[in-house]
Amino acid sequence: MLGQKRTLGSILAVVLAGVLTACGGSAPPAAGPSAERSLILATTTSTQDSGLLDDLLPAFTQETGWGVKTVAVGSGQAIELGRRGEADVLLVHSPAAEEAFVAEGTAGRRLLVMHNDFVLLGPDADPAGVRGLPVGEAMSKIAASGAVFVSRGDDSGTNAKEKALWKDAGVTPAGDWYQQTGQGMGATLRVAAEKGGYTLSDRATYLSQPEGLSVLVEGDPGLLNVYHVIEMTKQAGERVQPEAGVAFADWITAPGAQQRIGEFGRAEYGQPLFVPDAGKPEPVP
Fold first, then answer.
1. First to last CA, the chain
2. Cβ neighbours around 210 below 10 Å, total
3. Domains assigned to the chain
4. Which of 45, 80, 94, 137 is the most exposed place for a label (fewest CB within 10 A)?
5. pLDDT (tens place) for every residue of the chain, 285 residues total
């Protein structure tokens, strides 16, 4: 059954890890990953593009012995991988889609991890005149002006938020001015900058990959961006490793990882890129 199969890439990754260990001629250290302790994390491009995973995952492997194969896609695609039993754990930021998915009964715990916010970006000249406006009014003015808006169009958490903002503004985006990349946040930022267009981004990816765009709208309650970790169970597929999902969820919500999250980006950007939230009430707009 499709729901019980891993992707070919994930299988090859596990096999390759075993081959490399065998060829090394010596046993791996106790805390190191092995073919039997390699998990698949399906997560969003924002955690990858911001550099957060590069900071977190080596520490997770060192402390737990679980190696990690990361699949960085939009939140909708990450959830679909979980639904098909092709991931052990998810780290995503599309709350409505997450809640609907967990209600299906194939996932384990869904735990609050962190938040940051979305920002509306555009050229510094701001041809639509949206700087400093409430986000709903800004979206309406962009549509009315016909200024280029570049959407990810990839069913990601960011794309879901963008669609909700258009809906709240009473706009159905269509026409030459509305362009979709079908790509991740970093690539979409580059396209928006090249076209002198507007786009919606999570703040972390924008700060880590500035591409000639300016923050024009920020701080609006409707721009909150919340991340959860979701454990997968064998209800999704026999290949799922529930113990791996539990290990990752326990680790990323524990004080040590939460401290790392709270410090990430501070030295380089003068501010943390994410706010740790484990154990706190759910952030609400």
1. 41
2. 14
3. 2-116+226-276 (3.40.190.10), 117-224 (3.40.190.10)
4. 137
5. 434 434 434 433 433 344 333 334 433 343 444 445 999 999 998 999 899 999 999 999 999 999 999 999 999 999 999 999 999 999 999 999 999 999 999 999 999 999 999 999 999 999 999 999 999 999 999 999 999 999 999 999 999 999 999 999 999 999 999 999 999 999 999 999 999 999 999 999 998 876 789 999 999 999 999 999 999 999 999 999 999 999 999 999 999 999 999 999 999 989 899 999 999 999 987
Contact 285, 224 (CB under 8 A): yes
Q: What angle do CA 258, 102, 237 make, to 5 degrees?
A: 100
Tokens of 216: 């024009």
**Structure tokens of 85?**
């039993």
DSSP symbols for 247-283: HHHHHHTSHHHHHHHHHTTHHHHSS-SSEE-TTSPPP
Handedness of CA 164, 166, 171, 177 (dihedral sign): negative
Dist CA 97 CA 115 (whole Å): 17
